[in-house]
Amino acid sequence: MALRQVEGRFGDEVRSIRKELLALQAHVEVTIDYPEHDVEDVACQQVLTVGEQLLGRIDQLIASAALGRVLREGVATAIVGRPNVGKSSLLNALLQRERAIVTDIPGTTRDVLEEYINLRGIPLRLMDTAGIRETEDVVEQIGVVRSRQSMADAELVLLVYDGSQPLTDDDWALERETAKMRRIVVVNKADQGVRRDTQAWIEGLVARGVVYLSAKTGEGIDALADRVIDVIEQEIAMDMDASYMANARQTQLLQLAKQDLSSAMDSAAAGATLDLIAVALQSAYAQLGYAIGEEAGEDLLDEIFSRFCLGK
Ligand code: GDP
Predict the structure, then answer these.
(1) Residues 231 and 87 both lie in one domain
(2) Domain count, the chain
(3) Do 67 and 213 lie in a common domain?
(4) How many angstroms from the chain centroid is the CA of residue 118?
(5) Tell me: the pLDDT tens digits for 113-136?
């Protein structure tokens, strides 16, 4: 439902931009054909002023593609941590069903496992990564490389620690590696009690928002879900309500429209002939039309005769 609503808004916004573009185009065309109607300088100035506003709106539409991707593909969320901290168990707890293979042999999750969950209406693409650690095992190394890749691709990282154990070099390395990423620090195995030194170290680094939980008993999973939703709403899909969304093809057409509009503005600024500007505006209008499945047709003539007092 959210998807359909946002798609409708996208169409509305493109139509509204096109309307202004058409008015601008009509102004330019009329100045070409009926020079007594307006002077060229005024038309050029108009192209620059209105063009600037429209460019900003097109940019916003292009930026909104990120939200579209989130709704369609889910927020790419990587669960990372050294082997055996409970990543697979956490994935299972989140999925509330058994899907990942849980074992107590470190390094047995060797590939990246993907699952989709719907967290209070927001789709998440959860990636359970192989534990990241220094290893001599060739197969495990491949897993580690893939884990790093999915960590790099992720929009959100759940960094998992085992609160019942002292921290290791791998734990420290992962903290540094994810420091600049959007992450939520999770301390697992809270049912076994959290070691003071482990807790002090983690809280010293991450002042706010450490989530203590037990993947085994399920305690704290809701708090983690709350945090995840908070982060997505505040940082990823900042203005979900005000957003539109463009798919890949539409984004491409928006880029083309932007190029055309920019070149019309460049021409206007350089004092090029109005014909040149008109052609570029027309092309921008057409590109935007393709993005919503509408052809240009007779729009321009209709616009000219409805706006300007001219005999046909
Ligand atoms: P991974 O290698 O990080 O994916 O870790 P696993 O999910 O395979 O878990 C490793 C071991 O820790 C398994 O024996 C789990 O049963 C155990 N484990 C995972 N989460 C918890 C927890 O919250 N509490 C306790 N007591 N044990 C857990």
Answers:
(1) yes
(2) 2
(3) no
(4) 17
(5) 778 888 877 788 888 877 666 777
